[in-house]
Design goal:
Layout (H helix, E strand, L loop, with lengths): L13 E5 L6 E2 L2 E2 L3 H5 L1 H9 L3 E5 L16 H11 L3 E4 L19 E4 L6 H4 L3 H8 L4 E4 L21 E3 L1 H11 L9 E5 L8 H7 L5 E4 L2 H9 L14 H13 L3 E3 L3 E5 L7 E4 L8 E5 L1 H13 L2 E5 L12 H15 L4 E5 L1 H9 L8 E3 L3 H7 L5 H6 L1
Parallel strand pairs: 1-4, 1-7, 4-6, 5-6, 7-8, 9-10, 9-15, 10-11, 15-16, 16-17
Antiparallel strand pairs: 2-3, 12-13, 12-14
Helix pairs in contact: 10-11
Amino acid sequence: MNNIRDFKNLNQKKVLLRLDLNVPLKDGVILDHTRIDKILPIIKFLIKNNSQIIIISHVGRPKGKKNKVLSLKPICKSLEKKINKKIRIINDDIFKLRKEDLFTDLNNQIVFLENIRFYKEEEKNDISFAKTLARLGDLFVNDAFSCSHRAHASVCKITDFIPSFAGLQLETEINALKKITTEIKKPITCIVGGSKISTKIGIIKNLIPKFDNIIIVGGMANNILSYKGNQIGRSIKEENCEIIIDEIFKTSKNHSCKITFPEDVLVGKNMNGKSRVKELNEINNNDLILDIGPKTIKKIKDIIEISKTILWNGPAGYFENPNFANGSYEIAKSIIKKNKDKSIYSVVGGGDTVALINQINAINDFNFVSTAGGAFLEYLEGKKLPGIKALK
């Protein structure tokens, strides 16, 4: 896989740059800038090399139809401020757009194509659409790892028609994930949360043979507590997961991977209520398990302390309510402490986990924070990502 860094002469080259700028918007206001901040290195690199940059991205799911609410305009404006450069957004029909129409003003070094998902051909991985896009540039750069699990025209098929390269962020993401899947420093620990154990079973099964510890927290831990014969009250629980859980424990035993799950919890009567510490045998029918308890926190911190590598995907509780955020905060603080003395390599992924560490302004206190959702999970499951495969 060739990286754009190795391209000899980018001067005046028209670079089709695929980014993931699918940020949360409300009334045209960006709620989280993490994804925009992450693309600044590739933008600055191409500006420094005097390239002409054509940005391709999407927001939301417009389903192949124009939708003003899902315009890239607010993101374009935000990037303008961050790099202090004027950027033009092009609303013209891509099928009618010509290469020579893109940079008519000599002062313009960057243009945005409007939301690529306004075209139904994008998600169909349409050949003629990919060819049309390719004709607009001299070379293509994929710096959207988080879109690379999609076989879409501007991620996948375009590479058949134009010299194609990996971007700086995409390479960084893959290198970080390699450190927790193939180039591992042991002991290695995975902390995995989320509401459904079935959505993470692929990851757990793929990681058990490589990892020393799998720590299961969040809503999915309730399934294990129930499987072990504990009362979980009104807590979230996925049905028909006994075979999956049985398989996890059998596989972990075969590979000497220790499975850790809560031994005490914080409960509430509702999501917005106060918290109360309870032992597992004290949970009653009206309780909602919404965080891990102090004994479990200590156990997890002890495991983090002896770990050399850690992957964290999914908070430990309902952190949106501060009364149930302590478990997640303590995990974060424990990893950050080890990061500061450079005794651990930490990778964090998943939308909720990123939101959590943004709450405590700790985005720079981990070795790598992935904003990728589906691509991150599929890579960890050992799946081949279409966008990465296309670059090879």
